[in-house]
Amino acid sequence: MRPYLLAESSWKDVKGEKTQVVVLPWGATEAHNYHLPYATDNYQIEAIAAEAGKQAWEAGVKVKVLPNIPFGVNTGQADIKLDINLYPSTQLAILSDIIEVLNRQGIYKIILLNGHGGNNFKPLLRELGLKYPKMLLVMTNFFQTVDKNAFFEEQGDHADEMETSLMMHLQPDLVLPLEQAGSGKENKSRIAGIREGWAWAERQWTMVSEDTGIGNPYKATAEKGKKFFKAVSQKVGELIKDVAEVDIENRYEFE
Ligand SMILES: [Zn+2]
């Protein structure tokens, strides 16, 4: 029984406890090249949330990690079989209900731990922040917590060297041999601004990638995944501690 995971806690433990901060992991269910499972984002974010929660708990923080939400925004992958899409407006409704519960019960701090590139929580937190002024709403994308260049040879953003390495470390039984993986080649946009990264349009996945991957997975190793997992979990653990300890009314430094 891990007391920092709500899923494993009982009413007996939770009843009298003064919960300081709640962590909500949020993943996605989608194809990840030929070699990784559909729940890749969920396995990753659940493991990071649990490890970070553990570290914060051991540092004395009363944190509760909520169960992961397994479906994310997959509007660009409508034609990829069984990629399950939640609209951003559905996410807003789910998040709004969860935050209402916390606010009513006087638990004023939540960290959204995002595991999927299509989930964009900033606009949702802006809207909810105005509606729940007592709450401190924080989010982080796990894939931006540390510099990936320090851990991986090739960059990508879907079923790439990073995700493949992480899964080799976390769920090796669910990773198919790399010779079965596609190359993760990304077809570039014909629009210069999009190609150069300063303009944006949602990617039409079947036009962008043949194997659903974006990023070369072939240089992935479990050892790389282990190091990255450790670094990310530590950063997130520190974030949980910082958020738990800060006084919401006095959270900025003045000269
Ligand atoms: Zn992923």
Descriptive account of the structure:
The chain is of the alpha/beta class. It has helices spanning 11-15, 40-58, 88-104, 122-131, 161-170, 192-196, 205-208, 222-245, and strands at 21-26, 63-65, 109-114, 136-141. The radius of gyration is 19 Å and the shape is globular. 40% of the residues are buried. The structure holds zinc ion.
Order of helices and strands: HEHEHEHEHHHH
Query: What are the segments in which pLDDT stays under 50 over at least 5 consecutive residues?
Result: none
The overall average pLDDT, rounded, is: 97
Helicity level, as a percent range?
A: 25-40%
Name the beta content range: 5-15%
The biggest sheet, with number of strands, parallel, antiparallel or mixed sense and barrel status, is: 4 strands, parallel
What small molecules does this complex bind?
Answer: zinc ion
**Structural shape:** globular
Q: What is the number of helices?
A: 8
